[in-house]
Amino acid sequence: MAGRSSRSFLREGRWAEVRSLLKPGDAVLIQFGHNDLGRVGDPAAKQRGVLPGIGDETVEEALPDGGVEQVRSFGAYLTAYLRDARAAGAVPVVVSPVPHRDHWRDDVDFPEIGAWGREVARREGGWFIDLTGAVTGAYRALGQAEGQLARDKATLDNARIDLARYQDLLAKDAIARQQVDTQQATVRQLDGTVKADQAAVDSARLQVTYTRVLAPISGRVGLKQVDIGNVVQTSDANGVVSITQTRPIALTFAVPSALLPQVTAGLKDKASLTVEAWSRDGKTRLATGRLATADNAIDLSTDTIKLKALFPNEDDALYPNQSVSVKLQLATEANRLAVPAAAVLRGAQGFYVYVVGPGQHRE
After folding, report:
1. Considering 129, 157, 173, which residue would you say is the last residue of a domain?
2. For the segment 155-170, what is each residue's pLDDT rounded down to a tens digit?
3. Which of 85, 133, 246, 323 is the most interior residue, by most CB within 10 Å?
4. Is the Cβ–Cβ distance between 45 and 4 less than 8 Å?
5. 307: domain range?
6. Which tens digit of pLDDT belongs to each residue from 195-214?
7. 43-52 long-range CB contacts below 8 Å, 24 or more apart?
8. How many whole angstroms separate alpha carbon 269 and alpha carbon 98?
9. CB within 8 A of 184, min separation 6: which ones?
10. What is the pLDDT of residue 108?
């Protein structure tokens, strides 16, 4: 939730909502700072500013609705979050804020916020992650590499200009060839230096990407594979957490191979063949989707063909590896009489149904 401070997040009841969802063993990442340093009482701060430090002092601030709020220090608000999380059996983790863009060039951004967060975490028995320092270090290394590259490029450009001048003077027999050869060697040397600088910039940019862990897809997150304090490497087989895409979600099922001509015709004509997923007892329709594709071979052991259907699954009614019953609509026949399957009887001459006519007459 962007635009909140440690104070406003608590006042608006957002922390109460998070706290109600906490379970023993959960990890709670607590990160504030971008909106906390506004001056208390300044309308521009939008009632988000807190007192600096980690003490117990308080001041009053009038609210737009006429009420009065007791404003505490940044450390006092963090302490409340940590204690609530520990009371719920969760593991609180204080994370220092990501620095503002370009603020890492001259100095470390949010130095006070990081120091206060570290001290509160130590005092309350929580964890602390210095994200400010990690991101600052990575971007500062990138900035230094880019600066070195720019400087060496300028030197290379100047050396090429000098080489062109020397070659013109040599053509007029005004300087010795040795001076031209020396300048050509200098240009080649600087060209190699620029290439090495570019490699250093590329490496620094790669390190910057390591400051963020981005999921390649969106979906349902499984149980975490690592705990706080574990060293995470790119070569880890299990990764940090598993993610299963659920919107849309695919359903694989098999139908008799005798239906293959109808299925193939529907796929070729790009007709939208409707697929319904029902509960295993057949009483509840869970979702409606469309047929996407068919397998490239018939299973000889069962004489069936596998099909795949896609469901939007916006309500998360379908779950990965869930067992369901499937209904595939191959065609729609207009102007046909439809009767419930339970009304169809079988006799010596084949299938039949009873029709109730006027006066409860059975035919």
Report:
1. 129
2. 999 999 999 999 999 9
3. 85
4. no
5. 246-335
6. 999 999 988 888 777 766 67
7. 46/8, 47/7, 47/8, 47/11, 48/4, 48/5, 48/7, 48/8, 49/5, 49/7, 50/5, 50/6, 50/7, 50/74, 50/77, 51/76, 52/112
8. 53
9. 163
10. 59
Question: What one-letter code names the amino acid at 145?
Answer: A
Least confident of 141-145, 216-220, 249-253, 284-288: 216-220
Out of 93, 114, 129, a domain closes at 129
The β-bridge relationship of strands 220-224 and 127-129 is unpaired
**pLDDT at position 361:** 59
Indicate the number of domains in the chain.
Answer: 3
| Residue 39, CB-side half-sphere exposure with 13 Å CA sphere | 4
8 Å CB contact between 55 and 75: yes
For residue 87, give both structure tokens: 């009371």
Distance of CA 295 to the CA centre of its chain: 32
According to DSSP, the β-strands at 91-95 and 27-30 are: parallel
